[in-house]
Amino acid sequence: MPGEPDLRGEHPIIVEAADAAAAARVRARAEASGIPSTGGTHADGTWLEFLDPDGIAVRVIHDAAGPRTFLGVLPGGRFYDTPRLALPAAPGDAEGAP
């Protein structure tokens, strides 16, 4: 019987902050709630990372140098460019996400 998936130490959720000041506000709010963070600079941008109670990392990146649109990664490192979730329309987006 295969083991259960274990994402501890991984960062399956990555969101982009508008800029460094917005990322600093996220960090300050987390710290005020007792949630520690780490951070650094990667080839794709500058990031902060927070661990949820299960040990799964949520990454906030700013000044991103990577793709300007959605980019998903499949196991094995293959990429895909269309989100698999039906998302509600974003403010100012007449049609919503694909």
If you had to describe this structure to a student in words, what would you say it looks like?
The chain is α+β, with helices and mostly antiparallel strands and 98 residues long. The protein has a domain at 13-80: 2,3-Dihydroxybiphenyl 1,2-Dioxygenase, domain 1 (Roll), CATH 3.10.180.10. The protein has one helix at residues 20-32, and strands spanning 13-16, 37-42, 45-51, 57-62, 72-73, 79-80. Strands 1-4-3-2 form a four-stranded mixed beta sheet, covered by helices on one side. The longest helix is centred in the N-terminal third of the chain and has 13 residues, at 20-32.
Helices and strands, with pairings:
Layout lengths: L12 E4 L3 H13 L4 E6 L2 E7 L5 E6 L9 E2 L5 E2 L18
Parallel strand pairs: 1-4
Antiparallel strand pairs: 2-3, 3-4, 5-6
Give a brief rundown of this model.
The protein contains 1 helix and 6 strands. It is an alpha+beta fold and 98 residues long. The strands form 2 sheets. The chain has a 4-stranded mixed sheet, covered by helices on one side. Strands 5-6 form a two-stranded antiparallel sheet.
Output the keywords.
two-stranded antiparallel sheet, globular, 2,3-Dihydroxybiphenyl 1,2-Dioxygenase, domain 1, alpha+beta, 98 residues, four-stranded mixed β-sheet
Radius of gyration: 15 Å
Q: How many β-strand runs?
A: 6
CATH topology of one domain: 2,3-Dihydroxybiphenyl 1,2-Dioxygenase, domain 1
Main pleated-sheet profile: 4 strands, mixed
Report the sheet-strand fraction.
Answer: 25-35%
